[in-house]
UniProtKB/TrEMBL annotation:
Pfam families: HTH_1 (PF00126), LysR_substrate (PF03466). This is LysR family transcriptional regulator. It comes from Silicimonas algicola. It comes from the Bacteria. InterPro entries: HTH-type_LysR_regulators, LysR_HTH_N, LysR_subst-bd, WH-like_DNA-bd_sf, WH_DNA-bd_sf. Keywords: DNA-binding, Transcription, Transcription regulation.
Amino acid sequence: MRVDYLGLEAFVAIADFGSFQRAAEALSLSQAALSHRLKKIEEDLGGPLLIRSSREVSLTALGQSLLPDARRLLKELLDAYASVRAGARRSARWMSFACLPSIANSLLPAVLADLVRERPEIAFEVLDIPVSRIAAAVREGKVEFGVTIVSAEQSDLRVRALAEEDYVLFLPLDHPLAEQGYVTLPDLRALPIVGLSSHSRNRQLLDMAFGQLRDHMSWRIEVQTAPVALRIAAEGAAATIQPRSALRMAPDSLVALPFKDVKLSRTLGVVSRRGVPLSDVAVETLRRIEEEFERNFGTPPEIRIGRTPGHPD
């Protein structure tokens, strides 16, 4: 059944204004055109909706039963229309991307500062979310791309490596190991450690790198985010192992020691939807991010990303 939107609009306007003349003016119609719309919907519904006298307009029983639903339907339609139009305008001037919190804290501020100055017509939305949520945000179209820890490439996502970042040990400046200038795996046995949740990708990478040693380490505190781990380390309660980029958000009372006898690192990269081109603003933003990565981490690593079984090249 076809819904007569124009007829509903005319009926509600007459009921709200209590006058054909004022309703016609509000809808920018002649009174004849307004009357025609009302007559048409009354014919569709099979009965009169209004009683018009020389002094007033009143609702019939049919009109009284229809008015609440008609108002609701018109409001929902107007709200939907406004939402879609606002979304189109927003997408035209907004660019959204996801990023690891550690990178968002350390490298992104300089990139975004330049972009905001040079592209005043564009607004940027950064989802600084855990790695476990970045791929989903890209896949669902919430963001155009994500800066993440590289893992196996999925059939619907494209992954490209950008940099290799080392993990370092953060502990207080007055700790005995600070004078040594580096740390070894045997040193970790005697250290209380504050680590990220065992479900986090960073923790999983470290557990794989440590192998059997992880069972002999003193994981004393588990937290959800790197800033909290760094604050706890600054109080001297425990040391923490974090990516080197965490230096930017570490308290001044901490020192970062490299590992001497083992290579602990993570591969950072960008993930985007396969077959969906990036907008011009996203391309420019990603180029700036890549330049910042190269300044901080060097040239991109030569890494072949594995594909899920059965995915064509």
